[in-house]
UniProtKB/TrEMBL annotation:
The lineage of its organism: Eukaryota, Metazoa, Ecdysozoa, Nematoda, Chromadorea. SUPFAM superfamilies: Glutamine synthetase/guanido kinase (SSF55931). One of its GO terms (cellular component) is mitochondrion. InterPro entries: Asn/Gln-tRNA_amidoTrfase_suB/E (IPR017959), Asn/Gln-tRNA_Trfase_suB/E_cat (IPR006075), Asn/Gln_amidotransferase (IPR018027), Gln_synth/guanido_kin_cat_dom (IPR014746). One of its GO terms (biological process) is mitochondrial translation. GO terms for molecular function: ATP binding; glutaminyl-tRNA synthase (glutamine-hydrolyzing) activity. This is Uncharacterized protein. It comes from Parelaphostrongylus tenuis. It holds the Pfam family GatB_Yqey. Residues 154-235 form the Asn/Gln amidotransferase domain.
Length: 249
């Protein structure tokens, strides 16, 4: 609606349009997309139809020559583009458009993602993004520069993500390793092998450890079973400690 020069006119025009459009729809008609003008009687009247033709027509400028796009120019432009923009490559990997653009616009982050790109399809973009966010949080808390500048870090980072994705390690173990590697980079797989930090997948072993922890911490277990949150947290911590001792032996 055009020709509105005050809030009072705006209020009147909106109310008029509500009544008009309600009347059109109630009578079985269809409200068309058009430009209307507010007049001195407080009504809106039709100016231009937007459904069929463009509102504003372009007219040739007599003082400017017509530019003819030559086929060789198009070919030259195509040849000059050596590869697809990073955000296109990231979308092909499976990242949603907004995230792909976000990564591509940050030179340092883009470089890190590129170093991880070959292994991202193995773990999936969802896992990668979740672990990248965890890494960012760890580095920010440690007042470290994010993303990591060491190219070798990307390889160890993806090893941790991959081992978690396939169920070989727990998330807790992965996060602990990342915290260690942020300050002192090491070999993730070698670390897990040497210290036997793999996830315990045998249900019998897990059940035995839970029973042992409950037996040693009867009162805490009773409170946890009764819904006491702090006791439950304490039991989890004790179970983790017990599992570490079990793994070492």
């Amino acid at each position: 609606v055009k020709n509105i020069n005050s809030f009072r006119h705006l209020h009147t025009a909106i109310n008029y349009e509500i009544d008009r459009q309600y009347g059109v729809i109630s009578s079985g008609g269809t409200v068309v997309n058009e430009t209307r003008m507010f007049d001195h009687q407080g009504r809106t009247v039709s100016m231009r139809d937007k459904e069929v033709k463009t509102d504003y027509r372009f007219t040739p400028e007599p003082n400017l020559p017509i530019v003819k796009i030559q086929p060789e120019w198009v070919k030259e432009c195509k040849d000059s583009v050596s590869s697809s923009p990073n955000y296109v490559n990231y979308q092909r990997l499976g990242f949603e458009p907004r995230l792909a653009i976000f990564y591509a616009e940050d030179a340092e982050l883009s470089r890190f993602v590129d170093l991880c790109a070959d292994r991202i399809p193995v773990v999936g973009t969802e896992q990668f993004v979740a672990w990248l966010n965890e890494l960012k949080l760890i580095m920010q808390r440690g007042k470290e520069v994010y993303p990591p500048q060491n190219p070798k870090f990307a390889n160890e980072f993806m090893t941790i993500v991959q081992l978690y994705a396939c169920g070989r390690i727990t998330k807790l173990r992965g996060l602990e390793t990342l915290r260690t590697f942020v300050s002192e980079l090491g070999d993730a797989k070698k670390l897990f092998e040497t210290k036997n930090l793999w996830r315990i997948t045998d249900e019998n072993i897990t059940r035995s450890m839970v029973e042992e922890v409950f037996k040693r911490n009867g009162k805490t277990a009773e409170k946890a079973l009764a819904g006491h949150a702090k006791s439950l947290t304490a039991l989890k911590r004790l179970l983790v400690e017990h599992s570490e001792k079990t793994n070492r032996h």
